[in-house]
Design goal:
The chain has helices at about 15-25, 65-70, 95, 105-120, 135-145, 160-165, 185-190, 195-210, 240-250, 280-290; strands at about 55-60, 75-80, 100-105, 125, 150-155, 175, 215, 220-230, 255-260, 300. The chain is α/β, with parallel strands linked by helices. The protein has one domain: Alpha-Beta Barrel (TIM Barrel). β4, α5 and β5 (about 150-155) form a beta-alpha-beta unit. α1 packs antiparallel against α5 (about 135-145) and α4 (about 105-120) crosses α5.
Length: about 300
């Protein structure tokens, strides 16, 4: 679908009110599904290993996202440190698990957004934003008042508190979540995420309710919609068929990024089942499942040299 539209947040009536409502969720913290209860408003760390101030590892133009998100000028990617999940195979583990990065204020975060826009970014891409979303909404408000006018991408693990997501309606333009697993057993074993399928699927439904299928501008860049990422894991651990069947039950027009570039990183190097890359046959099986469920709106991502 092609359309011309301003980013949602520029039409939002009260970003400040939403920001205040979200910040109340930090004390005790119930921003993510773990609802760990830490008083993060005072700087105490929660399960995400984060306190109050946003912590970022980098803010840069990124060209490795899906084509209509990176485009020719790059996606304005802000990598947030910390994460509520404990994925054994996380390829960004120095950032997500060891929390490498620097703390910044909401005003500084707004300035980073504006600088990325100045450098030509097609969008502001918030990577692992879940645990800092109250502060991020505040920063979006500040940045919008200073001239921010490009789409906001919510690039997350997909393990989200639906109550929080509902408050983001009209603020987020593009949702880019993971669907990591098709069953709870694997999710708990490899990511420490209880009740994963119910929580993840509820989050995906809410994201879809808010933004729908992908919408593109006249230049071919995505300006609104849902794209789901699914990383194929060895030995069928990711439950690809269950994931794709669920997506098809929502809409065959949802964007799907089927990723085949898995490699063992972090703790996966010593975990049976995760110690090798996927095979070409495993990825081709996943591709056949796309056809089986009539899912044609998306991208395949794999490196021939890595399979």
């Amino acid at each position: 679908m092609i359309a011309t539209a301003y980013p949602s947040y520029l039409k939002h009536r009260n970003l400040e009110e939403v920001s205040l409502l979200l910040k109340k969720k930090l004390s005790p913290c119930e921003v993510c599904p773990f609802r760990c209860g830490a008083d993060r408003s005072t700087g105490l760390f929660g399960r995400c290993r984060s306190g109050y101030l946003p912590k970022i590892a980098s803010a840069t133009l990124h060209f490795g996202e899906e084509p209509p998100i990176s485009g020719e000028r790059g996606s304005g990617t802000i990598f947030f440190s910390g994460c509520p999940l404990r994925c054994a195979f996380c390829q960004n583990y120095p950032i997500s698990q060891y929390c490498n990065g620097k703390e910044i204020s909401e005003e500084e975060l707004a300035s980073e957004m504006l600088e990325l826009q100045r450098r030509g970014a097609h969008n502001i891409n918030l990577v692992t934003p879940t645990h800092f979303i109250p502060q991020i909404v505040s920063a979006i408000k500040i940045a919008a008042e200073r001239g921010l006018h490009i789409p906001i991408v919510y690039n997350s693990s997909g393990y989200e508190n639906v109550e929080i997501l509902k408050l983001l309606k009209g603020i987020i333009d593009i949702y880019l979540p993971d669907m990591k697993y098709g069953d709870d057993e694997s999710a708990l074993r490899y990511s420490g995420a209880p009740d994963y399928t119910a929580i993840n699927r509820a989050a995906i439904r809410e994201m879809f309710r808010q933004v729908g299928e992908p919408v593109f501008g006249e230049d071919g860049m995505m300006i609104k919609g849902l794209v789901i990422r699914h990383l194929v894991l060895p030995y069928g651990i990711s439950g690809t068929e269950k994931v794709l069947r669920f997506i098809a039950s929502l809409s065959r027009g949802i964007g799907i990024s089927l990723m085949g570039q898995y490699f063992p990183a972090h703790r996966a190097l010593s975990i049976p089942g995760l110690m090798r890359k996927i095979t070409l046959q495993e990825y081709e099986t996943a591709l056949k499942l796309l056809d089986k469920y009539g899912l044609e709106n998306g991208w395949i991502q794999y490196d021939n040299d890595s399979l």
